[in-house]
Amino acid sequence: MSTTTSTLTSDFAKHVAKGLLTPLAHLSSQYIYDDQGSKLFQQIMGLESYYLTECEFEILQASAGMLRKKFSDNGQKYFELIELGAGDGYKTKLLLKDFTENSTDFNYRPVDISDDILEELESDLTKQFPNLEVESLHASYMEALDSFQATPDIRRVILFLGSNIGNFSFDAANEFVGKIADRMHTGDYFVLGIDLRKNPRTILAAYDDDLGVTAKFNLNLLTRINRELGGNFDLNAWAFYPLYNAETGEVRSYLYPKTDQHVSIPQLGVERTFVVGEVIHTEVSRKYSKKELGILGKTHGLERVDMLLDRRGYFADVIYQKK
User: Fold this and answer.
1) What are the residues whose beta carbons fall under 8 Å from the beta carbon of 311, sequence distance 6 or more?
2) Which residue, 4, 147, 202, 225, is most buried by CB atoms nearer than 10 A?
């Protein structure tokens, strides 16, 4: 097993400088996921109100054998299982268990921007699946796909689970899927986990837990700015606020100052006073209708070949194939 690293710090600094100085301040949720942010997200996934993890676990548990056969169809003897945003591999281990127990010929390539999470995952996989070929990569998604050399005679199965696609606007999500498709060959599969529209109260409760874990997760952005960029955010003076717009299907998350706050990051040339009533937009989690799922990937040569649902119809794992 091996881990290759790359740094996102420079991009992070540029993003923070630009995001905090725009009239409507914003910071991208992708930068929450340093080592601490990733650990907090593992806690979120274990919350009772955060139904997404349980729903997708149910889908993969019921479908592992079917997916194994699909990925190995047409006499395919070997495939690469690439997971973008692998985290601790909690749900994916259901597939790994089924595949290894049935002598499937494949390797597993988990990708994440948290080096600590990847190291923990590798250690765990070594114990659970000692004969599994694993090559992890600490990098952004497209960097990872570009670095894993693709050949037309070896099938790629790319996983993007957990409704991470919800962090994009619809147009950005479609563009992202297009970039994935550009890196696929005919016969490759792309499995996309997507949270579906449902009772608005059920959705909002998943992002506004009573224990405050989601609040700590979002506030980790400010912690990271202080630690890595020399910021002076007073974490006790900021609070978390989410809302769900059922018309657009978007959960939007914000940080707001409890009292007027002057923010300074000298090395970035950032000086700004946030008055009470102003917010910093931190995260979007978009929910999809089934109609919208039919549009994603359609213009990029990807055919939707299956859509797997949990028993409540809350969540979908959509399977696309490159034609």
Assistant:
1) 58
2) 225
